[in-house]
């Protein structure tokens, strides 16, 4: 019986991934009921405007309260469902949950649009069998199509949706609890195995390998279910040295160790290699979607180059290999090449539009630094130190967490804080407030350009604002950094910092360049105030990004925080000559300004999506595979609202009549993935093409060949050529 249960657990996700119409195959000997018999759903429409649902739950089965979802059909607008409290307990996967046994009732208010004749609704639920064989069903959706009762309430044409949030409701949630969300990983369909568990290997030395598994958020790998095997090399043994993982209770494996995100496994090779230049390695492993379903045992094979440097990617041995990027996209780049590319990328960052506000700060620093050679050098050195320290810190974070370049802009808290920092600096440049020179006052250090601390934190701000822009020449260097040993990766990030700081450093140390600077004078204060306006525009841009991430309510809260911050700075300036009470009020106002930011960070992402643009298909791995199997050329565009390079490419190339005509002529589909918010499927796609961030453009030909990765900065002729080749 236990073996049957384990087999079902292993094969359930595979059935789901293959799009089986059944949740899983039933065996009369296992005692499990079909999902619709385990949870019998009945309806009652006798009360106009209220749909009543009842589940009859079979013995030894239960339903999750938090996994119930309801969606109205055409012409049906539903309100918040009323459900009773469930039995509270701690689930090993989902944490604190509420469940129902035996039966449960739900009431759903609804209104109908004029002309609607049927009451249609989608009802999703999920439950488990709590005795042997212990197994959870995949989320199950039933489509209800019921006669519309007489007297059903008609929706007002100008009324907002019943579930639409308001700014007032968001303001009322200051410090309050947010609605409990679904368990991590369970709202999205499981990714294909090759995207959920990316397997790579390289040789540090002939007798030392480094294996790497990379998983999207909310996926994990079992340590003790991993087996390594060398093919066609008798006498050669592998000794893995596992790092510490996360101890997790598992219904089948008991207390076991798992790894989230990414795990790097050093492996010692012993035995006679006989002068081999490569090693054929086979790895079998298993993992799960946290709170969701487990994958069957996977086996990947790869050939490791023992001379070192090349990264090998594992391919399945029990099915067709996943599509790999063309050879020119691999990470076969020397350290010196990566360093030169990083230096060039850092230099180009000085010209990127997203760095415009920092250019304003640097321009003022250059002018004020012209007082004397010693002062110029001091400005240059401290600014450079701020840039380099920030790049090293950012590099350590990215390497340790394996986050993509610029992905910090997916966090609405980071975006809102940056917007307020830009506003504070702009108000200082406009003369509203004058900060002191104390290093302990972070806000002062960011805005004051007269001391070493101010120069240092100006460099820090330059890196924070510049990082979301993936400039030309940076992609290969950053991809190398994410795959290389830690020391080499840090050297790449250090060289990026040198490139960004080099123009400022050159002016500080080369007298000939310094003599080109204008002489200081009264006009400098006017210029300083004029250059505050790009800072205001940067704050507006960040507010626009936040609107796409968390909706209008978040922007409203940010505006409240901005007003409170302006009030704080205004009173800070007035309190200089006043007593301790006035200075204490500054702290109170600052805390009030922080409160809206704390609240907006907890807002859920908008449930609605942008209206579909004519001729644009939203990216999903399944849709891409469907188009490719049909022999359709596909132009994939991975973008984000906070990516300035992406927006520039859209304005000059992708949102033009010429591009649309090229698509039509090639018979191609334009597929777009929005990475403004975190999306595991897009992250996996970026990782597949060794791309550290957006934009990413890949053109897939109609003959089923590998996709062609385009440069990050597009031209019309380049895109036209790629589409012509894809249509052949």
Can you lay out the helices and strands and say which pair or pack?
Blueprint: H1 2-17, H2 35-38, E1 39-44, E2 50-57, E3 61-64, E4 69-72, E5 76-78, E6 87-91, E7 95-100, E8 103-112, E9 118-125, E10 127-129, E11 135-136, E12 140-147, H3 167-171, H4 193-196, E13 198-205, E14 208-214, E15 219-222, E16 227-231, E17 237-240, E18 246-250, E19 254-260, E20 262-270, E21 278-285, E22 287-289, E23 298-305, E24 312-313, E25 315-316, H5 335-349, H6 356-368, H7 373-401, H8 412-429, H9 442-447, H10 452-466, H11 474-483, H12 486-509, H13 511-514, H14 523-530, H15 532-574, H16 580-600, E26 616-618, H17 621-629, E27 634-639, H18 644-654, H19 657-666, E28 669-674, H20 680-688, E29 696-700, E30 708-710, H21 716-726
Parallel strand pairs: 26-28, 27-28
Antiparallel strand pairs: 1-2, 2-8, 3-7, 3-10, 4-9, 5-8, 6-7, 9-12, 10-11, 13-14, 13-24, 14-20, 15-19, 15-22, 16-21, 17-20, 18-19, 21-23, 23-25, 27-29, 29-30
Helix pairs in contact: 5-11, 5-12, 6-10, 6-15, 7-10, 7-12, 8-15, 11-12, 15-16, 19-21
Question: What does this entry show, briefly?
Answer:
The chain has 21 helices and 30 strands. Strand 1 (about 40-45) and strand 2 form a beta hairpin. It is globular, with a radius of gyration of 29 Å.
